[in-house]
Amino acid sequence: MKWRLIIQILVKEFLQLVRSPAMAFILILCPIIVVGIVPLGLSNKTRLRVEVVDESYSGRGREAVTALSGSPQIARVGQSASLQASERRMDLGEIDGIVVVPRDGGEYHILADASQLVLGRDVAYYVSRQLSGVQDDGRVRTHALFLSGAGNTHYYLVTMLSLLIAIMGCCLATLSVVTEKESKTLEHLRSTGMSASLYVFSKVLFFTLIGLGELTLGLVIARAGYSLVCAGPLLDYYLLAACFLFALVNLGILVAVGTRTLVRAIYVLVFLFITLILLSTMFAPLDNMAPFWASTRFVNPFFWIADGSWKIVLKGLSVTDNPENCLVLLGLGSILSVINIKKVKKLD
After folding, report:
1. CB 3.0 to 4.6 Å from 130: which of 71, 76, 277, 330, for a disulfide?
2. Residue at 142 is within a domain
3. Span 325-344, mean pLDDT?
4. What's 61's domain CATH number?
5. Looking at the structure, do residues 167 and 184 belong to the same domain, yes or no?
6. Could you tell me the residue range of the domain that residue 106 belongs to?
7. Are residues 114 and 156 in the same domain?
8. What is the pLDDT of residues 121-159, one digit of tens each?
9. 295-310 residue pLDDT tens
10. How would DSSP label each residue in 96-156?
C-alpha cells in the first residue's frame, strides 16, 4: 500500500514538474549547455605563441624559428630584433614565451609568461624539447590509463557531469519544497496523514531519478560531442551518482525547509554551491589548499563525486576499488535525511 502511495506521489511530482513549459525546457537545455557547450572553453590543450630574438645576428635565429614551427604544441612563431619589444608584447598577453639567441653563441635563453604557472611550465618544456631535438624525455612517461581525449577536455567533462546532476537534483528539490511551503501545499499533504519521513523519502527518490535521467542525457552528449566513453563499469558510475544525489537532494531540502521564502533559499543555495565547489578540488589541486581548508573535503560531497568520477570514468576503476566515496556520500545523505525529517515534523 505504501509503495502505491509512493508511486502516486512520484506521478504528482512529475506532473508538477513538466506542467510548466519553462521547466521542461530547462531539463533539456541544461545538459546541452553544461556538458555540450561549456567544456569547449575549458580545455587545457597547449597552443603556444612564441617569439625568437636573435641577438647574435646569425642564422641561429632562423634555425630556431624553423625548429619551433615543427611543434604541434606551438601555434605561432615569430621573430623580433628587440628583446624589449618582445617583452612588451608578452606583458600585453600577445605572446607566451621568448627564445633569446645570445650574442656569444651560447645556449638559448627561454623567457616564459609565468602569470599562469601551467602556461609557463608548458613554454619551458615544449620549447626546450623542440630546440634540443629531443622527442621523448625518458624521465617523463605518459600513462595511457590517465590520458583521455585531447588535452584535458575529458577531465573537465567529468566535472561538468557532476555539476549538471547537482544543479538539476539539488536546485529543483529546493524549488519544489519552497513552492509547496509558500502555497500551503505542504500543510495539506501533512494533514492527509503523510508522515514526514515519507515526504522526505519521496522528494529524494524523485529528484534522484531526475538527476540520473539528466546524467544519461549528459553522457549521450559527451559521447557524441567529445567521444567520452566510461572506462569503468557504467553501472558503478550510476551508483556513485545516485549516492551523490542522495546527499545533494537532502541538502536542497534542508535549505528549503530552513528558509522562509524562495529568494532566501536561492541566496543560501548559491552561497553553499560556490563554497563547496571551490573547496572540492574540481578546479584546483588539493595541494594548493591550506591544510585546514583541505580537510573540509571529508564533509564535502562535491569532492567525493569528483574523485570517484575521475577514477571510474577516466581510470577504469570500480566502486569496489574505492568504496569510501559511496560510503561517505551515503553517510552525509543519511545525516541530512534525519535532520530534514525532524524539521518537516516541526512544520506542523
Report:
1. 71
2. no
3. 95
4. 3.40.1710.10
5. yes
6. 48-135
7. no
8. 788 888 888 887 644 444 555 454 555 555 567 888 898
9. 888 999 999 999 999 8
10. SEEEEE-TTS---EEEE-TTSHHHHHHHHHHHHHHHHT-S--TT----GGG--SSTTHHHH
